[in-house]
Amino acid sequence: MKTELIVIFRGNPADAGIVHEILNDNGIMANLRNELMGSIAPWYVSPGGANPIEVEILDKDKDAAQELIDAFLNQ
User: Fold this and answer.
1) Which of 16, 22, 36, 48 lies in the 20 to 30 Å Cα band around 42?
2) 50 neighbors 2 (Cβ within 8 angstroms)
3) Are 54 and 16 in contact, with CB atoms under 8 Å apart?
4) How many domains does the chain fold into?
């Protein structure tokens, strides 16, 4: 069984951190990509510095993670 990392969310440092914690608290292993550079020099990792932090998960957790993210964004 092959598993891949996918980007499930892109956002600012605060929102990406919250999404990361929500996923981890619900048993979904998540990783933050560009956390440091996205905070101090976002234009290096993202065009125009928009949404520089990415949250990565395993492809198999995509559906469950998307439900949690949608609930967070729609509150």
Assistant:
1) 22
2) no
3) yes
4) 1
